[in-house]
């Protein structure tokens, strides 16, 4: 098992930096998601760690989102395990007691965007070639309701409605204008800025900050917890459709051609 | 029965253009609403039709909103039938599976504004003399909760709270700034722009786009469906009050004087 | 008992001006809150009064928020009475049938900010030295859910989430940019502007405006009403913790040092 995610702790400040390193595009495979969740759990339980900066070790890409190969031609058991891992990752990240800062140093479609949206603060490299968004509709699939809830909590109902229906990938400047990311900085300043933002958030008393975060996010977290099995069933029934399998295969073909 | 609405289908692109043509001001009478709903239903059931552009065939006015004569001095039965037709129109339009684009080529108060708000995208002629808003409070009446819900989904809670309490009619530039309309273009470019926006939305796979739209709008649609009879009763009890009848009569007198 | 709040009615226009006058910083003591609620109740029941402008009679401060001495080293009975008075004030102000305009002529942290947020319109002196915000987290405490609900209704979920977690006090220009206040004017024009805004809101028929306001605010008001006793218990259990008492004492020490 390759080290998909790399968690490095910076001792004195209590801040971990987690770098996604799963070539070629940090796609969220079952293996990657499992390792990501375990890393988050370890940091969460480590009293020395108060915050985590999430970024990519690969050039030009933050994360390409859910690994489509996990959704193509697999068994019901596999789909179940995979989807539970996606849910688990989000429940841990969106509900984290740590301060979470996304340093988005590349493109970040679909599940990659969800990871950024689930953090407390999003800084993106100000490169108009990098884009971010929940573009599921472009692939003929539908973002789950909790992706949507997370998105609405960040950008509001109208921007989410339009962006989700169009499956938009927003170039960094547009993403900033829409409020999808909080700040743009030159790529070489990204980690420095992330550390500064982290320091600002860590200046608050942990307990009060954590209770406040819970107050803001509990309704949306509880909704998935209450409908978790139903959500898995929906995913399986959707992904098992021949029309969807065809769409996903066509999309993968397109990606392969683009690459070669 | 005069043709209040005119539905014309453009064969190849799968886009219908619906032009309101009920002089003098496209007010939403029982007859107009019935014809509008039937037209929407026909287009919805026509597999060749994937989108509809809604605009006005009259100069300077998109729609003046609910026809006040339907609310003055009529029977309970009439009020019931009228209000059910208003609900029906909104349920069809806000819940439409088609891509709906409003090409707002004139002023659009109250119910006219609701029609625009219920579409997927709103383009307005950039004429500051044209205004749009839910101005019910100005007439001494209250926008129904589902008008409000639709409004909040577009502009957010604060802008809706202020605009509804003041019964504001926003000139086009202000409406754009508030997010009430998505885009302003010179009046002569309105239909061209609407067609371009439609093409962008139709580039998405229908099924994914429709499910996404449903996910965004279902909560608000369900709320009226669950309280439909109660909402009719509220309307009747409100409109039957002598004070309200007096307000509406005064408003109609004012409109008549303005006209002459 | 000193006159903490001073209600003066301007006969002809039906507008009351309420000036906070509880030196040194208009902190919301049990006595102040009680007097404030009684004043609001009297105005509410006075048919001649249709609107109230709330401002401060002291320089540089609108209100410093909840009086921390009421939360330090007191009995359970006292905490209960105090918290009920905070709730009562908010229920009256946020649910008022009058038009309420906050003329924020100084800094307005925590409970002071809540008072401004609960009005229909907020005008602030455009002095960057004056700041406003729900900064509870800075003190190691958590804003109650109904402070949060009121805040979200004004600025939306994302801005509220960030501002509450950071316990931000926003300088007037930033507060305006975030939508926390509606307008900035030079301090000497504040009351004139407040009167003009009031006149604009009073031009609407009272009944329609009041029903519209209720429609917008009822869900959030009902939520406290339904959980009022639970909310009091939460406050008591929180404020009774030794760690919280320590935080509050430290904060009071800091304020004393700052002053001397």
TrEMBL record, chains A, B, C:
GO cellular component: mitochondrial matrix
Enzyme Commission no: 5.3.3.8
Gene Ontology MF terms in the entry: delta(3)-delta(2)-enoyl-CoA isomerase activity
Chloroplast recorded as keyword: no
Keywords: Acetylation, Fatty acid metabolism, Isomerase, Lipid metabolism, Mitochondrion, Transit peptide
GO biological process: fatty acid beta-oxidation
Catalytic activity: (3Z)-octenoyl-CoA = (2E)-octenoyl-CoA; (3Z)-dodecenoyl-CoA = (2E)-dodecenoyl-CoA; a (3E)-enoyl-CoA = a 4-saturated (2E)-enoyl-CoA; (2E)-tetradecenoyl-CoA = (3Z)-tetradecenoyl-CoA
InterPro entries: ClpP/crotonase-like_dom_sf, Enoyl-CoA_hyd/isom_CS, Enoyl-CoA_hydra/iso
Primary localization: mitochondrion
Keyword Mitochondrion assigned: yes
Pfam family, one: ECH_1
Superkingdom of source: Eukaryota
Record's subcellular location: Mitochondrion matrix
Enzyme category, top tier: isomerase
SUPFAM superfamilies in UniProt: ClpP/crotonase (SSF52096)
Pathway where it operates: Lipid metabolism; fatty acid beta-oxidation
Assembly, per entry: Homotrimer.
Record function comment: Key enzyme of fatty acid beta-oxidation. Able to isomerize both 3-cis (3Z) and 3-trans (3E) double bonds into the 2-trans (2E) form in a range of enoyl-CoA species, with a preference for (3Z)-enoyl-CoAs over (3E)-enoyl-CoAs. The catalytic efficiency of this enzyme is not affected by the fatty acyl chain length.
Protein family per UniProt: Belongs to the enoyl-CoA hydratase/isomerase family.
Full protein name: Enoyl-CoA delta isomerase 1, mitochondrial
Native species: Serinus canaria (Island canary)
Lineage: Eukaryota, Metazoa, Chordata, Craniata, Vertebrata
């Amino acid at each position: 098992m390759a080290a998909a995610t790399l968690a490095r702790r910076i001792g004195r400040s209590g801040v971990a930096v987690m770098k996604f390193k799963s070539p070629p595009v940090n796609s969220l495979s079952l293996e990657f998601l499992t390792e990501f969740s375990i890393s988050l759990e370890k940091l969460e339980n480590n009293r020395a760690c108060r915050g985590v900066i999430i970024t990519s070790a690969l050039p030009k890409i933050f994360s390409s989102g859910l690994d489509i190969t996990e959704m193509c031609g697999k068994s019901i058991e596999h789909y179940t395990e995979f989807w539970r891992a996606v849910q688990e990752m989000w429940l841990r990240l969106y509900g984290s007691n740590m301060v979470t800062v996304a340093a988005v140093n590349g493109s970040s479609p679909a599940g990659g965007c969800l990871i950024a949206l689930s953090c407390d603060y999003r800084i993106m490299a100000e490169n108009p070639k990098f884009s971010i968004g929940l573009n599921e509709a472009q692939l003929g699939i539908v973002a789950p309701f909790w992706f949507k809830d997370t998105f609405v909590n960040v950008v509001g109902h109208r921007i989410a409605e339009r962006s989700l229906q169009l499956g938009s990938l927003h170039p960094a400047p547009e993403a900033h204008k829409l409020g999808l990311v909080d700040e743009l900085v030159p790529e070489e300043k990204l980690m420095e800025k992330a550390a500064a933002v982290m320091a600002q958030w860590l200046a608050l008393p942990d307990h009060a900050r954590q209770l406040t975060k819970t107050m803001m996010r509990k309704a949306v977290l509880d909704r998935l917890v209450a409908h978790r099995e139903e959500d898995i069933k929906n995913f399986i029934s959707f992904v098992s459709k021949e029309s969807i399998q065809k769409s996903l295969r066509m999309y993968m073909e397109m990606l392969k051609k683009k690459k070669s």
